[in-house]
Amino acid sequence: MLVRKLFRTAWNYKSQFISMIIMITLGIGIFLGFNMEWYTIEYDTSRFFSDTNYADYRLYSKDGFTSDELHKIMETDGVKAATRYISVNLDIKDSKNKSLALDVSENYTVSTFIVTDGEEYNEKGDGFWLSDKFAAANDISLGDELTLVFQGTEISGKVVGLIKAGEHMICIADNNQLMPDYSTFGYVYISPERFRTVLKEKVKNTYSENIGKINVFQKLIEKKLNDMSDDEILDKAYGSSKTYTAKVIGYNRSIMTESVTMTDTLADELGIDYHITSVYTDKNITEIPSSDIISGKQDKAQLMDTFNSFVGIMDAMVVILVIAAVILGIVVLYNLGIMSYVERSRELATLKVLGFRNKSIGRLLISQNIWLTITGIIIGLPAGVGALEWMLAALAGEYEMKLMLGPMTYCVSVLLTFCVSLLVGMMVARKNKKIDMVEALKISE
After folding, report:
1. 264 occurs within a structural domain
2. pLDDT classification of 338: cutoffs 50, 70, 90
3. Spatial separation of the C-alpha atoms in residues 366 and 424, rounded to whole Å
């Protein structure tokens, strides 16, 4: 009996029941989706770092670290393992705008990687352990040959394994790249033994051909090849512990990075040891020939592609949220309208008895809804702008982005809100045709 009563009531008030179901579905769906995404990211990240023995701390030195310095670090209380690590971006031969971060680690127990397919890591192996995502995006399979180019030196090898590495969980080429793009940039590991062989060959060829062209390996050339040690081979210049004081004379904005800009004259006065590492040009990247003094190339199209991919993800999220907001707005407004209609049924029945037509009463209901909508828009627009400014400062402040709201943004927001309000008002006004005036007038105030 009660079950049949439940279904009968649901059918008689199907609009309200459907609205409630939609509200519950959206509410639980959005909450579950966001909570599941956050928990998934947290779980996968912590587990991935644990599985790859991700290093707890990193030390940087302008002149690199020698074996003796590494041993001193290992002797520090609490240090269980340490490694000297190098990563350099190299172009792929005969591939337009494709490059890989070449990584080498002396101690495979620190910041390792997970082999998803192929051979396990071998400290004396000659092959490449390549990012599985880069391989999938570029149709590279196990056994394929790759040739990397660094300052005129070619490093060739066979892909023997596909991997995931904690050091490249967010795989970007440099600070200019906003989002990972595995179709153009990935990472690859080689063994320390292979790396030493490549460097010795590089130094030997450069030394015998033209000492004057040596750049990064200048320090290695100054010693005899037979006296080269692993310490010298794995040196990597980075950063400085010195501090400098200068007067701030202006502010600049960069969409990619946050930095300090100064002239070469001021740098010389302050005694800053700097080196010119980049050249900006309007030439197409394909017109620039390879050279032993060029370690990598990057063009504007690559930067724009990564930025567009970042914007595309944000646009997709915004579209989903807008659709959910519109559906939720319709449901909430409709339910509020129905509640108001039921409470005012005696008043509406009285108007019909007095001779007012359904159209007139419908226009009254819709106009009231429109005035409420106008009030909400007046309050909502500045509140929305304030919320956007806060979100931009909190979530994307490092990207140096400014809030840009043009007339079209305001027009679309106002028009969409009016359309939703008008649609709900018309749906509620239609119920006025079915009102039972006798029953409504019997309802006590």
Report:
1. no
2. confident
3. 9
Domain that holds residue 99: 67-233
In the chain, the number of structural domains is 2
Note whether 121 and 221 are same-domain residues.
yes
Nearest CA to 254 among 301, 303, 216, 292?
A: 303
For residues 419 and 332, membership in a common domain is answered with yes
Alpha carbons 199 and 231: distance in angstroms, whole number: 12
Contact 420, 391 (CB under 8 A): no
| CA distance linking residue 173 with residue 384, whole number of Å | 35
| Strands (E) located in 166-270 | 185-189
Same domain, 101 and 229: yes
Q: Is residue 30 situated within a structural domain?
A: no
211 and 307 share one domain: no
- Among the candidates 211, 233, 255, a domain finishes at 233
Residue bearing tokens 């904690």:
166
Q: CA 145 to CA 157: how far, in whole Å?
A: 6
Q: Which residues contact 120 (CB under 8 A, 6 or more apart)?
A: 161
Quickly count helices (H) and strands (E) in the chain: 13, 7
Q: What is the mean pLDDT of residues 200-220?
A: 52
Phi, psi of 111 (to 5 degrees): 50, 65
**Domain contains 80:** yes
Q: Which residues contact 346 (CB under 8 A, 6 or more apart)?
A: 440, 441, 443, 445
Using one digit for the tens of pLDDT, what is the confidence trace for 95-107?
Answer: 777 889 999 998 8
Per-residue pLDDT, 234: 35
- The model's pLDDT over 259-318, given as tens digits with 9 standing for 90+, comes to 778 888 888 888 877 777 777 777 777 777 766 666 666 677 766 776 777 777 778 878
**198 and 78 within one domain:** yes
